[in-house]
Design brief:
The complex is a heterodimer. Chain A is of the alpha/beta class. Chain A contains 23 helices and 19 strands. A 5-stranded mixed β-sheet of chain A has the order 12-11-15-13-14, sandwiched between helices. A 4-stranded mixed β-sheet of chain A has the order 2-1-3-4, with helices on one face. In chain A, strands 9-8-7-10 form a 4-stranded parallel β-sheet, sandwiched between helices. In chain A, a hairpin with a 7-residue loop joins strand 17 and strand 18. In chain A, helix 2 crosses helix 3, helix 6 crosses helix 13 and helix 10 crosses helix 13. In chain A, about 55% of the residues are buried. By secondary structure, chain B is α+β, with helices and mostly antiparallel strands. Chain B has 4 helices and 5 strands. In chain B, helix 3 crosses helix 4. The chains are: A alpha/beta, B alpha+beta. The interface between A and B is large, with 34 and 37 residues.
């Protein structure tokens, strides 16, 4: 038998898979066979490494060399050069976006070095489809440990750790467990909320795809603590890979006797079922989610009573988010003190953020609470592309708000974000640069919540529609005096009167952008001008005669024939034909096309 | 799986499977695997090293490769780096020599002087 001397771990998260990671894997296996070293090198799938825009990515162990943007044809080079001759393939290494420095190993690059990985501890190390590899990394040891403690001791440990819900609201997890344990009624249930729906957030999907056992183990510990013997995963059907890996993991755990009767001979029994959500955003709200599992229409109901007292089939139920449950095993293994030493005074541990938008390293990151936005964007995230200026970051998706540049050095946690009108939320973090129109951002999120409103209560159903109408008018240059005040008034009413979290938070992006970027709203309304030059109804494209060389590129790419001109003569754009797609602006090699305000003097 | 002991047993078995990815590298063995090294039999040397380490159940040693360093006539070259010690480069390392180097240098901390090509401080 040949000895395995190297492991190639290929990221098999959704992003890498969709950029053809499996084709690279097949090519790699083929190349290894050709070189006659197939048996010396293990090729293994692993969970999301986090560098999603660099995918497909692979890590070669034992050296830990990190290769990015792999194409099937690169497989041969890696085999012949690296695996056969020991020469690292420089052109496939990661390059730091700001300094252009090249780093061979994953652990050296800022994106990883500046992170603290607790929830994502197994990403890039184990194969999510192998329970044995999870067990090798202390997997199910926390469950075994918890089963030797009393349920009260488990709850006490989680309480003292300071862990708070990672789904958005930040409710103390240990307290939630305690309330469910003390509630009268039987049987009791545990639900894992995997109905991640915020635009741009994908941490729960990645955790389920990359380390499903860590969530299962967390759920079982929760079950033991609250006195439940049945758990439900509620995962949206749009996450096929997460569902597949979770089903596989449940099957493996069952066959090992880690799920079922008399687990590890302790007398504790627990079973888990998986339910698919059909993608209604409102089903992420716990009472709507419960209704959906029961087979009813996914609509929220007023609280209290809370699910801890009246949950699934009116029985005491604890609902935890995916990321929350993935924190449980490390807390049990390393202790409450270890966990509470990480983070800030009231926000303990780490948070996974989905970094998106105008930032060089988009992807999944995990940092301790208290990390500043500046560190996230400019160290982990590698800065803003094209040397553009940072304008704001949107946290918490459609329920959250924006953080303007003046708060770049604010330590991020539940409290500090709330103070400035934003929220940690599920962890979506969208970075915006100077080219982003904040009114349009607010419109985008409100459009989302408006269409996802379940319609049960009028403040949300009608109110968000009215707000959206006003925003659309403003963006189209039809804003009126008093619109801003109307938006604020409506927003506050909707927040107060809506039935569930969806409506109660839907106005946040609008209120928050008004708070920090009121001047942009005013420019749209009073001057019919979009300061970021992004709103199509308020801008026009124009050729700067002095810069135009008459190369004709704009005329060739214009989809509607609006860009016109004779070769080597100054071109022009027919404003009646122009649909403002911006292609000519982006492609002009001489920077001769500019965006101008329609309603300014210049035309 | 019926008990804690079962879990522990499975964990120990499975750890071997992922050791390459998680080991804290203290001692490094680097085999020259340029075209020259391979022509001189470096692949057999490499496999012998891995085999010997496995036989002796030595786990905290990382074995990697490097390219040609320009000393082709001395290939196969094998570097051994132990923490806090100079880098030792052995020359013309056959599989048999490799096994002895592991027994003597890795296990017993005795450099096999007669095969040493160079000693490099602070590497």
């Amino acid at each position: 038998m040949a000895i395995v001397r190297a492991n190639v771990l290929i990221c098999a998260g959704s992003a890498c898979v969709s950029s053809r990671a499996y084709e690279f894997k097949d090519a790699l296996i083929e190349a290894l066979k050709e070189a006659g070293i197939r048996e010396e090198v293990n090729v293994v799938d692993t969970g999301c490494v986090g560098t999603c825009d660099l995918g497909p990515v692979a890590i070669v162990y034992p050296d830990g060399v990190f290769y990015v943007r792999l194409k099937p044809e690169d497989a041969k080079t890696i085999v012949n050069e690296h695996l056969l001759k020991g020469r690292v393939v420089n052109r496939l290494l990661y390059q730091e976006p700001m300094t252009k420095e090249v780093f061979p190993s994953l652990s050296e690059i800022d994106f990883v070095a500046k992170q603290r990985r607790i929830v994502l501890r197994n990403m890039g190390i184990i194969n999510p489809e192998s329970i044995e590899e999870y067990i090798a990394r202390e997997g199910y040891q926390a469950l075994a440990t918890a089963l030797t403690m009393t349920p009260e001791e488990v709850i006490d440990t989680v309480k003292r750790s300071g862990l708070r819900g990672r789904g958005g609201a930040g409710f103390p997890t240990g307290l939630k467990w305690e309330l469910t344990r003390k509630a009268s009624g039987s049987p009791k249930y545990v639900i894992c909320n995997g109905d991640e729906g915020d635009p741009g957030a994908f941490m729960d999907r990645s955790i389920l795809e990359g380390d499903p056992h860590s969530v299962i183990e967390g759920m079982m510990i929760a079950g033991y603590a609250v006195g439940a013997s049945k758990g439900f995963f509620y995962v949206r059907a749009e996450y096929p890979l997460a569902i597949k890996r979770l089903e596989m993991a449940l099957e493996q755990a069952r066959s090992y006797g880690l799920i079922g009767e008399n687990i590890l001979g302790t007398g504790f029994s627990f079973d888990i079922e998986l339910r698919r959500g059909s993608g209604a955003f409102v089903c992420g709200e716990e009472t709507a989610l419960i209704a959906s599992i029961e087979g009813r229409r996914g609509e929220p109901r007023p609280r209290p009573p809370y699910p801890a007292n009246r949950g699934l089939w009116d029985k005491p139920t604890v609902i935890n988010n995916v990321e929350t449950l993935a924190n449980i095993a490390p807390i049990i293994l390393n202790g409450a003190e270890w966990f509470s030493s990480i983070g800030t005074e009231k926000s303990k541990g780490t948070k996974v953020f989905a970094l998106a938008g105008k930032v060089n390293n988009t992807g999944l990151i995990e940092v301790p609470f208290g990390t500043t936005l500046r560190e996230i964007i400019f160290e982990v995230g590698g800065g803003i592309p094209g040397g553009k200026k940072f304008k704001a970051a949107q946290t918490g998706g459609p329920s959250g708000g924006c953080i303007p540049a003046e708060y770049l050095d604010l330590p991020l946690d539940y409290e500090s974000l709330k103070q400035i009108g934003a929220i940690v939320g599920s962890g979506g973090l969208i970075i915006m640069d100077e080219d982003t129109c904040m009114v349009d951002v607010a419109r985008f999120f409100l459009e989302f919540t408006q269409s996802e409103s379940c319609g049960k209560c009028p403040p949300c159903r009608v109110g968000t529609r009215k707000m959206l109408d006003i925003l659309e008018r403003i963006i189209n240059g039809e804003g009126e005096e008093g619109d801003i005040e109307r938006l604020i008034e409506l927003g506050n009413e909707i927040k107060q009167d809506s039935l569930c979290g969806l409506g109660q938070t839907a106005p946040n992006p609008v209120l928050s952008t008004i708070r920090f970027f009121r001047d942009e709203y005013e420019a749209h309304i009073k001057e019919k001008r979009c300061p970021a030059k992004s709103c199509r109804a308020l801008i026009a494209y124009h050729v700067i005669p002095d810069k135009c060389k008459g190369c004709g590129i704009c005329a060739r790419i214009c989809p509607v024939g609006a860009a016109q001109g004779k070769p080597r003569e100054v071109h022009f754009i027919d404003k009646d034909l122009c649909i403002k797609c911006g292609d000519c602006f982006a492609k002009c090699p001489f920077g001769a096309i500019e965006k101008i305000d329609i309603f300014s003097q210049k035309s | 799986m019926k008990s804690l002991e079962d879990l522990k047993r499975i964990r120990e078995q499975a750890q071997a499977q992922i050791r390459l990815r998680t080991q804290e590298s203290n001692t490094k063995i680097i085999v020259g695997m340029g075209t020259c090294g391979i022509a001189a039999g470096a692949r057999e040397t490499l496999m012998a090293i891995l085999d010997e380490l496995a036989k002796r159940n030595i786990q905290d040693v990382v074995v990697t490769q490097t390219g040609c360093v320009g000393l082709c006539e001395y290939e196969p070259l094998v570097n051994v780096i132990k923490p806090g010690q100079p880098k030792i480069t052995y020359m013309k390392v056959t599989p048999e020599k490799a096994r002895q180097i592991i027994a003597s240098h890795i296990v017993n901390d005795q450099v096999v002087n007669e095969w040493v090509l160079s000693t490099e401080e602070g590497a």
